[in-house]
Amino acid sequence: MRVGIMGGTFNPIHYGHLVTAEVVRDRFKLDRVIFVPSYHTPYKGRIHPASSRHRYKMAKLAIENNDYFSVSDIEIKKGGKSYTRDTMKEFKKSFGKETKLFFITGADAIAQMPRWKRAKELSTLCEFIAASRPGFKLRRLPVKYQRHTHLIEVPALAISSTDIRGRLKKGETIKYLLPEDVEKYIYKYRLYGSKPRRY
Ligand code: ATP
Ligand code: MG
Fold first, then answer.
1. What's the average pLDDT block by block, 10 residues per block, for the chain (199 residues)?
2. Which of 148, 143, 196 is nearest to 168 (CA)?
3. Is the CB of 16 under 6 A from ligand 1?
4. Residue 40: per-residue pLDDT
5. According to the model, what pLDDT value does residue 43 have?
6. CA of residue 150 to ligand 1 center, whole Å
7. Which SS3 state, helix, strand or coil, does residue 104 take?
8. Is there a domain that residue 180 lies in?
């Protein structure tokens, strides 16, 4: 088996995440892609995220019509700070040695990789797939990680969760930036300071 793991805050999940995961799945012939919302991500500074339960539920809604996609609550259940290395170790254990793991990230996230906890050990557990992302340059990684990393161009979507949260706060539309069921969920629970709205 070839399994892709897409980690993130998904605060909220949007089409940038979904297109990236789908294009990578197709190109790398993955049998499945698992989205793993973090409980709390270190290195992210001060943000005001929706609860992990809401972020998990929105991810579930977003992937409903893709048979290859699923969502794992492994990091949310564990609580505390989420480290990719711990998560990948768990997946390796449950899938077994025969399964090849790929960690999927955007250009911004992969640039942080050398700062991740036990990055060296992580690179023995999986290969990395770094996707292009508008506004971020896919930089060359330190040599020791290069042979574990694949760079891939995905259709450019200049969408970010930060931008979506900003729009909601200002009462601006977020239609077509994320799946409609996620949009409805956000308004239903008034997430990110949103006001009830007609679709
Ligand atoms: P925030 O603005 O809150 O940081 P985000 O949009 O960057 O949110 P994350 O949950 O931080 O979303 O990202 C999860 C993963 O998805 C990261 O590896 C990130 O690089 C990647 N990613 C997010 N948006 C895009 C996009 N538009 N194109 C390609 N990759 C993306
Ligand atoms: Mg981000």
1. 96 98 98 94 56 95 98 94 91 96 93 83 92 87 82 95 95 97 96 86
2. 196
3. yes
4. 75
5. 55
6. 17
7. strand
8. yes
Instruction: Give the per-residue pLDDT at 182.
Output: 98
Residue 197 lies in a domain: no
Count the neighbouring beta carbons within 10 Å of the beta carbon of residue 148: 16
Split into its structural domains, the chain has a count of 1
Domain residue limits at 182? 2-192
Q: Identify each DSSP E strand in 31-97 by its residue range.
A: 32-37, 69-71
CATH number for position 142: 3.40.50.620
Assess if residue 198 is contained within a domain: no
Name the H helices within 64-175.
74-78, 84-95, 107-112, 119-125, 143-146, 161-169
Per-residue confidence (pLDDT) for residue 141, from 0 to 100: 76
Which ligand minimizes its atom distance to the CA of 160?
1
Distance 195 CA to ligand 2 centre (A): 24
* Residue at token pair 């005001």: 48
Residue written as token pair 């990110």 = 192
The residue type of 91 is: F
